[in-house]
Amino acid sequence: MKKELIEYLSQFAHENRVDLFNEKIEQRTNHVTLVLEDIYQAQNTSAAIRTSDCFGIQNVHVIENSNEFNVYKDITLGSSNWLNINKYNKEENNSKACFDSLKKQGYKIVATSPLQHHDSVFEFSVDDKIALVLGNELNGISEIAKQEADEFITIPMYGFTESFNISVSAALCLSEISKRVRESDIDWKLSEEEKNDVLIKWYKHSIKHGKKLAKEFKKNFKEK
User: Fold this and answer.
1) CB contact at 8 A, 199 and 7
2) Which CATH class is domain 30-188?
């Protein structure tokens, strides 16, 4: 039914938009995902989400322990409409819930660290599915994140300042990781099922009454 729904919804979109969706869906990936753990400043989270979309990262995971996230539209510039934002805010330990879920999906938990003795972002292996974890501005990643991490990486630094801004760290890491993944022989693209789900999301968002049209189509399809 998903293929049929996509074909149906595409009739209500401009031809240029259909071509754009078909082009961009081939560049999306779930081989790399971004985890933002309890970020204090929502503008940093919004900037990291915008960066994720720019690099074709389809899923971002936002852990809300003490800090609630709200989208800064002036910063995201609509990028949050094109990717999936997965929030963790209902459990006693939201960080643990997030990492458990990602590990079940086959992700290697890769936490960023300011300590220069860890492998750099330019050196570690990108063969496995990567969940890149960034901690908050004041304390970095939590103790739970440190315990759950399969690997730590660092961004080489040569100045006096100990760390980059969170959004800058996300941009630097995702740029390098995305480049290495896309230049490799890894099967990094979305599966056909994933592509269908994403395209439906995009069409429902971008066409007038998209959600209503999709709901009516599904109802009629079941009645056939």
Assistant:
1) no
2) alpha beta
